[in-house]
């Protein structure tokens, strides 16, 4: 025990260990839990009683595969609480509702150009209210609502800085919250998107998460937690991959963002992403050449990240939906570039796609529920 820690600290730590083990694994017996956590049976019993009283776990029975007596196992009640996350990006508002798993239960997307005006935020508030009504959300189960801003570079209690056409603008978060009828927590989208991805990843405890939208962000995840060296770390979109290359939204040249953001692709093709990928599928040679060039630049960026972190790299965001079908080509390029002979399969597509930042935003409330 650390000096100064109290019995209460120890109890909270033990509870966190039990909750993390239960909510990140298949249902297990009490004995499994003792083995996995290293805690004593009386401690486990005490915590399980508390979690049952809170409605977070229930008991079930699972048939023994060897034909013996059915074993009693502990089942997390994932649908005992829901959270809602709103992600506002340059051209779109995405709202998602997820449970404690977190499983994406409902989603909605509305094309809407971002602007920091009363009209815009009032419209987002209306979308949220429609979403809540449409999904008949039970207020007693709603843990909270969060908002995330895709191009935020720093986020404090009262102000956020974000990229806006080669300028860094300030957003008054107190004012933004005032436009909503519900209490809104404001989070960093990339970091929380990474958190959503890492939450259920038992097998891969350390990952780098790349969220690819109009701009590219990311998160470095270790043991399911975000590594925050500074507010600007993991802004992978602004890694320099071409000296004196294309102009980037940050005002500099040659950043990954200028080659691999959705904005870069739609800017080059002069089409929407749907139209562009339809063109690729129907054999448009100009679009196919653009895509190949896109994948090469993306591979350069991902290869650099791999060399630094040597972890799996998970791709999320709007672009991940389209890249799903070209992941093998990307992996081939990565394998060719890797200096250590690593297979390119270390890069893969994340599970929440374009809703990653929305699901991730809601996790703040899931965490609060599970740790209180
Ligand atoms: Zn840049």
Characterise the protein shown here.
- The protein has 372 residues and is of the alpha/beta class.
- The chain folds into three domains: 7-76, Orthogonal Bundle (Arc Repressor Mutant, subunit A); 81-193 and 356-371, Nucleotidyltransferase, domain 5 (2-Layer Sandwich); 202-354, ATPase, nucleotide binding domain (Nucleotidyltransferase, domain 5).
- Helices cover 41% and strands 23% of the residues.
- It contains 13 helices and 15 strands.
- The chain has a five-stranded mixed sheet. Strands 13-12-11-14-15 form a five-stranded mixed sheet, sandwiched between helices. Strands 7-8-9 form a three-stranded antiparallel sheet.
- Strand 12 (216-222) and strand 13 (225-226) form a beta hairpin.
- Helix 9 (273-281) packs across helix 10.
- It is globular, with a radius of gyration of 22 Å.
- The two termini are 21 Å apart.
- The mean pLDDT is 88.
- The structure holds zinc ion.
- Zinc ion binds at residues 238, 248, 250, 252, 255, 257.
């Amino acid at each position: 025990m650390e000096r100064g820690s109290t019995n209460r600290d120890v109890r909270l730590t033990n509870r966190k260990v039990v909750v993390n083990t239960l909510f990140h694994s298949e249902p297990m017996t009490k004995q499994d839990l003792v083995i996995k956590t290293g805690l004593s049976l009386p401690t486990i019993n005490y915590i399980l009683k508390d979690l049952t009283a809170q409605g977070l776990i229930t008991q079930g029975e699972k048939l023994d595969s060897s034909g013996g007596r059915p074993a009693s196992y502990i089942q997390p009640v994932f649908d005992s609480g829901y959270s809602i996350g709103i992600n506002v990006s340059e051209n779109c508002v995405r709202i998602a509702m997820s449970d404690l798993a977190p499983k994406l239960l409902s989603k909605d997307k509305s094309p809407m150009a971002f602007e920091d005006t009363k009209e815009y935020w009032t419209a987002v508030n209306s979308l949220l209210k429609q979403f809540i009504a449409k999904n008949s959300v039970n207020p007693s189960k709603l843990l909270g609502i969060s908002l995330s801003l895709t191009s935020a570079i720093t986020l404090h209690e009262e102000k956020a800085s974000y990229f806006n056409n080669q300028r860094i603008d300030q957003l008054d978060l107190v004012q933004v919250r005032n436009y909503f009828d519900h209490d809104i927590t404001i989070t960093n989208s990339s970091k929380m998107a990474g958190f959503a991805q890492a939450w259920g990843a038992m097998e891969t405890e350390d990952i780098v998460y790349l969220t690819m939208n109009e701009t590219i962000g990311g998160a470095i995840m270790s043991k399911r937690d975000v590594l925050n060296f500074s507010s600007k770390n993991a802004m992978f979109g602004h890694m320099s991959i071409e000296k004196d290359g294309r102009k980037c939204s940050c005002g500099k040249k040659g950043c990954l963002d200028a080659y691999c953001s959705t904005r870069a692709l739609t800017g080059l093709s002069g089409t929407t992403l749907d139209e562009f990928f339809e063109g690729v599928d129907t054999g448009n040679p100009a679009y196919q050449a653009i895509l190949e060039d896109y994948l090469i630049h993306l591979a350069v960026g991902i290869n650099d990240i791999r060399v630094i972190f040597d972890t799996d790299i998970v791709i999320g965001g709007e672009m991940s939906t389209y890249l799903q079908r070209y992941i093998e080509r990307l992996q081939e390029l990565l394998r060719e570039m890797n200096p250590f002979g690593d297979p390119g399969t270390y890069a893969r597509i994340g599970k929440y796609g374009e809703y990653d930042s929305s699901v991730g935003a809601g996790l703040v409330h899931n965490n609060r529920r599970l740790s209180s």
